[in-house]
Design a protein that fits this description.
This is Glycosyltransferase 2-like domain-containing protein. It is built from 11 helices and 9 strands. It is an alpha/beta fold. α7 packs antiparallel against α8, α8 runs antiparallel to α9 and α10 packs across α11.
């Protein structure tokens, strides 16, 4: 693949970049062009056409005909997680990255992330990202005080930051580079919204070192009609389910009591919000909400000693018996 343009030594490690593709005809070229143009050239670019009904699949094939680094997978529609998983099966690289097909990346993103890993023998690296509109214009009000700083932390510290202000910068799958070993036996859950929330704790628990890069190298495009821009509905409960699964994973980890308590309180807030926003006349919404609420109360009983009496009364006891009171209070906050 030639010599590195930004470093003095040849590219030694193959990076597999997985791009799920579905109904993004308007944005796809900008995305793929940004990957092709990377200063780190030793790439395997995997475009996963997830049964896209527009011309996206043909665009993928055109790119593959022009660049030998590009592999195209055509499959029936299975959703974002299924497309990522298909890409993981095909990935050959020592390192793996993800790019969503309506987003794009800085020309030196993978060089910076790779160099950060090599410099400290880390297991993964993570960078900041910027919110941009469909035309690539910076959305200033959403890009203040970017949370990721130049530093090296351990995986558990990274995990605890997922609940901080702007903690989603430590959750998303695409603003980072993974050592292949971290993703062994890791698959994104099919059919779920907030799929990254289901996997991030399992990945961080394997990482001894996480290299953090302050540069905002990933451009997160905000567009109407995308998965994350739709209204509140039953699929938003996937986020609650993900955090409840994370609770089960973390509850027995050493020195995690503070995080577990914060996690429990985050679940509580999300359940109260769901109780306000969900259509409880819908039997499906009502039943799933009831199941998640039951799990939350059961988990709280596991860690009752971590609550103050006031927290226990408000967050658990009252919520179990009179959830409507909590919802009324929440509306006034």
């Amino acid at each position: 693949m030639g010599k590195e343009q930004g470093m003095n030594t040849p590219y030694k490690d193959l990076i597999s970049v997985i791009v799920p593709v579905y109904k993004v005809e308007r944005y796809l070229c900008r995305c793929v062009d940004s990957i092709i143009a990377q200063t780190y050239t030793n790439l395997q670019i995997i475009l996963v056409d997830d049964g896209s009904p527009d011309g996206s699949g043909a665009i993928c094939d055109d790119y593959a005909a022009k660049d030998s680094r590009i592999t195209v997978i055509h499959k029936k529609n299975g959703g974002l997680s299924d497309a990522r998983n298909a890409g993981l099966v095909a990935a050959c690289g020592s390192y793996i990255g993800f790019v969503d097909s309506d987003d794009y990346i800085a020309v030196d993103m993978y060089e910076k992330l790779y160099k950060a890993i090599v410099a400290c023998n880390a297991d993964m690296s993570v960078c900041n990202f910027r919110y941009v509109d469909e035309n690539g214009n910076n959305i200033e009000e959403r890009n203040n005080a970017l949370p990721v700083k130049d530093e090296v932390i351990d995986g558990i510290t990274a995990l605890t930051r997922t609940l901080d202000d702007k903690g989603w910068y430590y959750v998303t799958a695409w603003n980072r580079l993974y050592s292949r070993k971290l993703l062994q036996s890791i698959y994104f859950p099919d059919g779920k919204l907030h799929e990254d929330e289901f996997t991030v704790h399992r990945i961080y628990s394997k990482a001894d070192k996480v290299a953090c890069v302050a540069d905002a190298c990933y451009m997160y495009v905000q567009r109407g009609g995308s998965i994350m821009q739709t209204g509140y509905g039953i699929r938003n409960l996937d986020a609650v389910e993900a955090l409840e699964q994370r609770f089960e994973f973390c509850v027995n980890l050493p020195e995690m009591s503070d995080y577990i308590l914060r996690l429990s309180q985050r679940i509580y807030s999300m359940l109260v919000e769901a109780g306000i926003k969900l259509d409880m006349h819908n039997a499906g919404c009502r039943q799933r909400y009831k199941e998640l609420k039951k799990t939350y109360i059961k988990q709280c009983r596991q860690i009752k000693k971590l609550f103050t009496l006031r927290q226990w009364i408000i967050d658990v006891a009252v919520f179990e018996i009179f959830p409507a009171i909590n919802m009324a209070v929440f509306k006034r906050l």
